[in-house]
Design brief:
mainly alpha, about 0% strand, globular
C-alpha cells in the first residue's frame, strides 16, 4: 500500500470504507444513538488519541524496518496503556502487573532482535508516537463502554479521522487517486476490513479487563503474525523467537493466573451438614 497511497489519503479513504461497513451493523443492532452531552469530554479524549493513530504507523512501516517499528510500537503501547489505566481510568498497578510488563518487554526484544539500532529516526519516532496514541486510545475507551456500544465509539473515532485527515491530505497536495480495480485498492479494502474488526474486538475486550492486562493480551497479535508468516510465507521460527513468544504468553496470562491461584487458596472448605 505504501507505494500506492499517500499517508493522509489512505487514512481518510479507509475511514469512509469502515464507516460505511459499520453503520448498517450499528443500525441493525440498535446501537446507533446520541452521545450524552456529559460524556462528550470522555469521547473527546478517546477521539483525540484515535485521530493520531493512523498516519504515524503507516509512515513508520514504509520508512523503517518492520521488526523495529513493531518492537517500539508495542513497547510504547503497553507503557501508555499502563499509565492511562492508572492516571485516567483509576486502575491499580500492582507488582505482578509490573513484572508482567517486564517479562513482555524481554519477549518482545527476543522476537524482534536488536534491530532497534537501525538508523531510521523519524520512522522510529512515529512508531513510538503511534504506540502511545494507540495504548491511550484503547485504555480511554473504558470510560465509555459501560454506557455505549464499542462499535459506536469506534464509529465516531473514524468519523473524526475523516474530518481531520481529508483536509490535511488536500492541504498537503497529496495525490488523490480514484478507486480502481487494482492490487493496491484490494489491499486497502482488506486492510480496512481487518482494521475495523480488530479495533472493534479490541475495544470490546478492554470493556471487561484492566487496560494494563488488555495491552499485554494484545501482544498475542505478534505470535499469530509469526505463525502466519511461518505457514504462509514459510519463514523460519528460531528458538530465540520461540522463547520470546513463550515469554509474551506468560506475561499476558500471569496476572490472571495469579489471581486464580490466590482465589483458590482463599476459598474455605464447607463441611457438609451431618444428620444426627
Amino acid at each position: 500500500m505504501g507505494s500506492s497511497f499517500a499517508p493522509f489519503y489512505q487514512a481518510w479513504v479507509r475511514s469512509i470504507v469502515i464507516m460505511l461497513l459499520m453503520l448498517p451493523i450499528l443500525i441493525a443492532t440498535k446501537s446507533f444513538r446520541a452521545i450524552e452531552r456529559r460524556d462528550w469530554p470522555k469521547l473527546a479524549v478517546f477521539i483525540g488519541f484515535c485521530v493520531c493513530t493512523q498516519v504515524p504507523l503507516y509512515y513508520a512501516f514504509n520508512h523503517a524496518p518492520i521488526g523495529t517499528v513493531q518492537l517500539i510500537f508495542y513497547a510504547m503501547f503497553v507503557i501508555a496503556a499502563y499509565i492511562m489505566g492508572r492516571l485516567y481510568v483509576g486502575e491499580h498497578i500492582t507488582r505482578i502487573k509490573l513484572l508482567s510488563m517486564a517479562v513482555a518487554f524481554v519477549g518482545l526484544a527476543l522476537v524482534f532482535g536488536v534491530s532497534v539500532f537501525a538508523f531510521a529516526p523519524l520512522g522510529l519516532l512515529l512508531a513510538a508516537a503511534n504506540g502511545i496514541a494507540s495504548g491511550s486510545e484503547n485504555a480511554s475507551s473504558k470510560k465509555l463502554t459501560d454506557k455505549y456500544a464499542p462499535g459506536l465509539i469506534i464509529f465516531w473515532g473514524w468519523a473524526f479521522t475523516l474530518l481531520t485527515h481529508l483536509p490535511l491530505s488536500l492541504l498537503l497536495h497529496e495525490p488523490q487517486p480514484r478507486p480502481a480495480f487494482t492490487a493496491g485498492w484490494g489491499y486497502l479494502l482488506c486492510y480496512s476490513i481487518f482494521n475495523a474488526a480488530a479495533f472493534w474486538l479490541g475495544i470490546q475486550g478492554y470493556k471487561y479487563v484492566d487496560a494494563s492486562i488488555g495491552s499485554l493480551l494484545g501482544l498475542m497479535e505478534i505470535l499469530f503474525a509469526v505463525v502466519f508468516a511461518a505457514i504462509v510465507f514459510h519463514q523460519h521460527i528460531t528458538w530465540i523467537i520461540a522463547v520470546g513468544g513463550v515469554l509474551i504468553i506468560v506475561a499476558a496470562t500471569l496476572p490472571d493466573m495469579l489471581a486464580i491461584i490466590q482465589h483458590r487458596r482463599l476459598q474455605q472448605p464447607i463441611e457438609p451438614v451431618r444428620e444426627e
